[in-house]
Automatic annotation (TrEMBL):
Disordered, as annotated region: 284-305
Cell compartment(s), UniProt: Cell outer membrane
GO cellular component: cell outer membrane
Keywords: Cell outer membrane, Membrane, Signal
Record protein name field: Outer membrane beta-barrel protein
Source species of the chain: Alteraurantiacibacter buctensis
The keyword Oxidoreductase is annotated on this UniProt entry: no
InterPro entries in alphabetical order: Beta-barrel_TonB_sf (IPR036942), OMP_b-brl_3 (IPR041700), Plug_dom (IPR012910), Plug_dom_sf (IPR037066)
Length: 779
């Protein structure tokens, strides 16, 4: 707590200094000296002149930069939707959703997500941040940073995605955006926003607000069997167990906004910014299990017998709020340039879920009711100080420090109710006019499950230094970062002697990058050591019974981060005035992998089951090649035709208790191709985008999952009216892409090794096409 108070005091002092110093700087530089070359007139955002292409970054660290014009015409709803058009980003989301970005196909926890250069907390135990939390309309640009730099925290094994929101220097004037989304079941959702930027006092201000309806009407079908095709080629006829039909509708609305105030003087730059996102959503599932692959009828134990095995009603009300405040001061003076940055982020996740089910496959139908209440609060406060010394005209030395306090409070309560229903239920129930809600009984008070009531505090103290410069065709950066972390876990669901656990670790993370220009091309080379911190649910000391099949899972507070040595080698070539084509090869050697190991202790379900525990037990490697193209066809006499595309082919190898596999959830490939045709004389444009990603395989104790997706097709048509008004019609998921999953389920580790199945399941999910009609008006 002493460290927390110190950091809070330091951050407050930094913010006060940041507010005061620019005023003093105005004595040295005249007011109103903001760099106007950065500011876009609102009409250039509303009425796009030409086609947006991928930008060429001048930094030595390899990165791809995409601004809002590259994404806007396909009207992505979220940052996740926008990133479906950049290289090597995959998702294992539900259809028509884009939440956890998997850079290089790796689990979202391997990718560092930054907003305006700062880490942001989220609800996910793997420390990932869901990109569907950021409305695309707030984005100024997206940076895909392939390698690491000493300036940033090293939590970036796969790489870093930095989302820069619009600031006070990005917009002059205002515009309104309004429209709606039409979904496959006839539902219509609104999408509206207003944005304004202009001068205010000695600086510039920007403010934007967006309201967006969210909706996903999924339909799922599952077929379950007692054995699999690897054991019985005739499994479909011989081993059928049950079929489940499910409607899964996600219905909600997002409220988002960001504000920025910037003073950009001769020797001083100051920014004060904040952003806010609130999501209110209800997820409603209704599921029916039948004892027939095709038939639909009443309860199974009736005369004559029916087909309905279970009726399940599951509703989750979700309210999530995130906001962040940041202040940054850059001051040039006699000894160089000093940068001071303070940031605070807070994420709250409140959920109330009920799941009621009636089981008719019994002599007496049984009602089971589960209530779950979730309250997660995750806060992060950080302070970074950096000073740059000018060693020569083209050579700088930067040194700095970083401090961050993270506090995460988890409060989960559960209740269960179970009782037999009257015998009359066997004949009188109609699943189309009744629901399990009709039979809700009495519940006991909420109680925290194992691991459901805990606090995790992480205090980080980092130091870094780097040298950067240019020499002819060469630009380079080489640095080193020391990261130290103290962790305290307090779990109130375990015995008092184990309730408070501590851990600490520190790592040295060197990095180096170089960029060499050769004619119209340039080579990039980089190497870095990075890390991934343990999952938050793995470091709680709680014992979760029957969590992995029939095996128990015991947390491990002494888990250390995974580390990786990696390198990137790439080449990109300029095509005409705006185009660029690039290819990049990468490799990562990962050590101290966190895998679930067998403690040898018998599990709560008895003989044949065990207590399992995550441990740092192995190594892995990841490699691949990435290609991207973004250019006009002016060299073919088609200057108003733009093409873009990318291909990522990735592979990996890891060894677990069952043998060798790829990293969980890694698709072998992902590619994206598109075309935009502008018609200047008509004030119109149209475009098409096609995307496909390969199958992904996950293997954990008790379950194996193979996930495949159909291809995704997007099309837009645009009409511009004068210099200030644009109307755009966009269709997405036009091929009605499905998500198909194959589940292998096992009861014990021995069963999984012997391929003795508890259940084999085939599941498919669809949601249908989505259409948007959006209008923008500049004022």
């Amino acid at each position: 707590m002493l460290r927390s108070r110190f950091l809070l005091t330091a951050a407050t002092a930094a913010l006060a200094s940041a507010i005061a110093l620019p005023a003093a700087a105005q004595d040295q530089a005249p007011a109103g000296t903001a760099d106007e070359t950065q500011v876009q007139d609102a009409s250039t955002i509303v009425v796009l002149s030409g086609i947006g292409y991928r930008n060429r970054s001048e930094d030595a660290v390899p990165e791809l930069v995409y601004d809002e014009q590259f994404f806007q015409r396909f009207e992505p709803l979220t940052a996740g939707d926008a990133l479906r058009r950049v290289p090597s980003v995959t998702f294992l989301s539900d259809v028509i959703e884009s939440d956890g970005a998997r850079l290089r196909g790796l689990d979202p926890g391997y990718t560092q997500i930054l907003i305006n250069g700062d880490r942001v907390p989220g609800s996910n135990a793997d420390r990932s941040f869901f990109l569907d939390r950021v409305p695309a309309e707030l984005i100024e640009r997206v940076e895909i940073v392939r390698s690491s730099t000493a300036r940033r925290t090293g939590d970036a094994v796969a790489g870093t995605i930095n989302i820069e929101l619009r600031d006070g220097l990005s917009l002059d004037g205002g515009y309104m955006r309004a429209g709606g989304l039409y979904f496959n079941d006839g539902e219509i959702k609104p999408s509206v926003g207003v944005y304004f930027g202009g001068e205010m006092g000695p600086g510039r201000v920007l403010a934007g607000f967006n309201v967006q309806g969210r909706y996903n009407p999924k339909q799922k079908t599952s077929l379950r069997f007692g054995d699999s095709p690897e054991n019985n080629p005739d499994f479909f006829a011989d081993d059928f167990d049950n079929r489940e039909d499910q409607t899964d509708t996600r219905d909600g609305i997002d409220y988002a906004g960001n504000v920025s105030y910037v003073i950009d003087a001769d020797t001083t730059r100051f920014e004060l910014a904040g952003n806010f996102v609130r999501t209110d959503r209800t997820e409603t599932e209704r599921s029916f299990e039948y004892n027939s692959p095709t038939a639909i009828s009443g309860p199974v134990r009736t005369t004559p017998p029916g087909n309905l095995l279970t009726d399940n009603d599951n509703v989750n009300d979700i309210s999530q709020t995130s906001f962040s405040l940041e202040s940054e001061l850059e001051q040039e003076w006699a000894l160089g340039e000093t940068k001071l940055r303070a940031a605070f982020s807070r994420f709250t996740d409140d959920q109330f879920e009920y799941e009621y089910e009636i089981d008719f496959d019994r002599t007496a139908p049984r009602f089971t009711g589960d209530l779950t209440q979730v309250d997660i609060v995750d806060e992060e406060m950080s302070l970074q100080l950096e000073h740059i010394f000018k060693l020569a005209d083209d050579l700088d030395l930067a040194i700095g420090g970083f401090a961050q306090n993270k506090d995460r409070d988890t409060d989960i309560g559960e209740i269960r109710s179970r009782f037999n229903l009257p015998a009359a239920m066997r004949t009188g129930y109609n699943q189309f006019s009744q629901t399990p809600l009709d039979f809700v009984g009495t519940f006991a008070p909420f109680a925290a499950p194992a691991g459901g009531l805990n606090t995790i505090e992480e205090d980080r103290r980092d130091l870094f230094a780097l040298i950067e410069g240019e020499s002819g065709a060469l630009s380079f950066e080489a640095g080193i970062r020391w990261e130290n972390t103290d962790v305290t876990i307090e779990d109130l669901t375990v015995a008092a002697a184990q309730r408070v656990q501590t851990n600490s670790y520190d790592y040295i993370l060197p990095s180096a990058s170089a960029k060499i220009s050769v004619g119209d091309g340039r080579f990039t080379l980089s190497a870095a050591r990075t890390m991934r911190r343990p999952r938050l649910d793995y470091i709680s000391p709680a014992l979760l019974e029957a969590e992995l099949g029939d095996n128990d899972l015991l947390g491990n507070p002494q888990l250390a981060p995974e580390t990786a040595w990696g390198g990137d080698v790439g080449y990109e070539h300029r095509l005409g005035r705006t185009g660029v084509a690039g290819i990049n090869f990468f490799y990562r050697a990962v050590q101290n992998l966190v895998e679930v190991a067998n403690t040898g202790v018998e599990g709560s379900e008895g003989a044949g089951t065990f207590v399992l525990q995550p441990r740092n037990t192995g190594d892995g490697k990841v490699w691949g090649v990435e290609f991207d193209l973004s250019t006009s066809l002016g060299f073919l006499g088609l200057p108003d035709t733009g093409v873009f595309g990318n291909l990522g082919y990735v592979d990996s190898e890891i060894t677990d208790v069952f043998g060798t596999r790829r990293f969980n959830g890694q698709s072998e490939y992902v590619y994206n191709v598109g075309l935009i045709q502008d018609f200047p004389s008509l004030g119109a444009a149209l475009g098409v985008n096609y995307r496909k990603q390969g199958a992904a395989f996950d293997r954990t104790v008790g379950e194996e999952v193979t996930t495949t997706y159909g291809a995704d097709l997007e099309v837009f048509v645009e009409k511009r009216f004068g210099d200030s008004f644009t109307v755009r019609l966009v269709g997405s998921n036009l091929l009605d892409s499905s998500k198909d999953e194959v589940f292998n389920k096992f009861t014990t580790i021995e069963d999984q090794q012997d391929r003795s199945f508890d259940e084999y399941e085939l599941e498919t999910e669809e949601a249908g096409p989505v259409f948007q009609l959006i209008a923008r008006y500049a004022f």
